[in-house]
Design goal:
Keywords: DNA-binding. This protein is mainly alpha-helical. Helix content is 62%, strand content 9%. The protein has one domain: Winged helix-like DNA-binding domain superfamily/Winged helix DNA-binding domain (Arc Repressor Mutant, subunit A, Orthogonal Bundle), CATH 1.10.10. The chain contains seven helices and two strands; from the N terminus they run H-H-H-H-H-E-E-H-H. The two termini are 32 Å apart.
């Protein structure tokens, strides 16, 4: 049976522009100074790793530490350290896994949920300030396109990418 033809690639010029813009956003969002500013605005004194863990837990159901590590693409020992820190701060708790009583799930406490909400609100306010001069229809289009892009990234996350041999 013949191998299916590869899907056509998006025009390189646009892909390069988009990749460059995403790199700039990631750099700006990932700077320690930006994180510290966001945490100060939110009144939540957490390092980046702890804040990322809380945000991940806020996305859904309680998780086993190993599953949390996999979703965050970090080592399990990293999650264990962060969970210990966050438990001491009263932001997460361990609860029995209903499918396996020997296992424990990590769950946000009410204080943890409040901390995530404050971080998200501070982030939204900063973004709102940055986009205040945009027309509502431009914001609607940007939101639609961002969701579409993220959905497509997720859909193709495990696809093999072939590069031409180095020259």
């Amino acid at each position: 049976m013949p191998k299916p033809a590869p899907a056509p690639e998006a025009p390189a010029t646009y892909v390069g522009e988009i990749a460059g813009a995403l790199d700039r956003i990631a750099y700006l969002a990932g700077r320690a100074r930006q994180h510290d500013r966001l945490m100060a605005l939110a009144g939540v004194p957490l390092d980046r790793a702890a804040a990322a863990l809380l945000r991940q837990l806020a996305e859904g159901e309680p998780l086993r530490p190993g599953e949390l590590a996999a979703r965050m693409s970090v080592e399990a020992s990293h999650v264990t350290r962060q969970v210990q820190h966050l438990r001491k701060a009263g932001l997460v708790t361990r609860v029995p896994d209903p499918d396996d009583r020997r296992a424990r799930l990590i769950e946000l406490t009410a204080a943890g949920r409040k901390a995530v909400d404050r971080i998200r609100e501070a982030s939204r306010r900063g973004m709102s300030m940055a986009l205040q001069d945009w027309a509502p229809e431009d914001l609607e289009r940007l939101a639609t396109l961002f969701h579409r892009m993220v959905d497509d990234f997720v859909a193709h996350a495990d696809d093999a990418v072939e590069l031409p041999p180095p020259t």
